[in-house]
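Sample intake — NCS1 family nucleobase:cation symporter-1
Collected from: Alicyclobacillus fastidiosus
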Amino acid sequence: MSSTIQFDRQPDPGLYNPDLAPVPKEKRNWSWLNYSTIWMGMVHNIVSYELAGSLIGLGMSAWQALAVVIVSNIVLIGAIWLNSVCGAKYGLPFPVLIRAAFGYKGAHVPVLIRAFVAIFWFSVQAYAGSKAVGAVIGLIFPGWISLGTIHLLGASLNDLISFAIFWLVHAYVILHGMERIKSFELWAGPLVIVLGLGLVVWAIHAAHGLGPIFSVRATLSGGHFWGTFFLSVSGMIGVLASLVLNIPDLTRFAGSQRDQIIGQAVGLPVMMTFFAFMSVVITSGTVIAFGKPIFDPVQLLLHFKNPIVVLLGAFSLLIATVSVNVVANVVSPAYDLTNLLPRKLNFVKGGMISILIGVLFAPWAWYNNSNSILSVIGAIGGTLGPVAGIMIADFYFIHRRIYDVESLYSKEGAYTFRQGWNPQAFIAMILGIIVALIGLFVPALHALYAYNWFLGVGVGAVAYIALMRIVRGVNHSNTIIPTTNLETVSLQQDEI
């Protein structure tokens, strides 16, 4: 990304390059439609489908499963909206904005944690999508299945080949930069809806109407149900919790605050609930049609024994997975790594390094162990929750929605703290993580783990506000006022 921004003082080259610079006002051209389709691509994916469908497998009714999705999406959109404003206001990405709370050196810690989580999710999504690649190849080449008897690096040879092919598709999209990603999302997200609607029609036909689907009884009740309900909500939030942090990476391109607010409202809670509704209906239909819940969409497609259905369905799943993986799990670590080495890296190089590291997670070795996936996802949400709470608290309560943009690129500015580190932010983050995850390690407090994301956000935010006001006395009278007069960061822009 090129930038025409002119600073009053020279940005430190260790904190700045064109990909980390504020997006000029004339290049902020993403409309509400772009954000809607981007979110469609991020929520319409195999892992989201399987997680929503697995709620039926946990013993919930269709209505209870939908309630989990609705509650989690209401919470998510609220947190995402709160953290979207600063990105759209200043045109800055997450790795730069986080410097205001953690310091220019300290920011590397949450940035690298966020990058690590995103790369982990890249490997998960890439392996899930590669299953669709294998299904298509198996239709074309009958001998494909025989390669499953050959094992290498802990995986069958056909799985490794499928993964490699799918990895190359990601590399192709990344190499063409953010503009190609924006164009790709315009048609990738809606395509999956077409596949989902087709499967919904099949499920309703197989069940002889919606009535039987929604009459399937739940096997959970009382305290067991509520514990599972809130743990599932935390798990659903955990799938997209990392986006709460790096949503400025996307909203920095917004034409206005209204564009990002409306676009994300349509794209996340509305489309995620609709997608989950389709997943729940389809999974409930498989219980009636096959006697067991099938929440792996690739396995469901193979049950149809129809090459055309499998080919079209697999293609849709491939596009869906590339869509979510690039936007949710590559854009962020690409900026994160660029922030770490701004002199040597840019967006494309950072993205390619991210997907190379993703291979090292070897997802084929553990992906099918579904017994602990909800707990793992919840732990991810609990770890990132405190950082989200700190970011939101810093922008709205400590700095009152006003950042000194030039200081974010300086080692001697308003966010230097103690030689680039803000101890208060780290204390708040550690406290938030401890409270969020304590239920995993202390049996007597296990019930708290169902609320881990909420506890992490709340404790992180409250502790940070208290520590900052006690140690530094930040209040209305000494809120930091920006010294820059850049048009692109005008305080009046897009205020609502």
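Post-analysis note: DSSP finds 19 helices and two strands in the chain.
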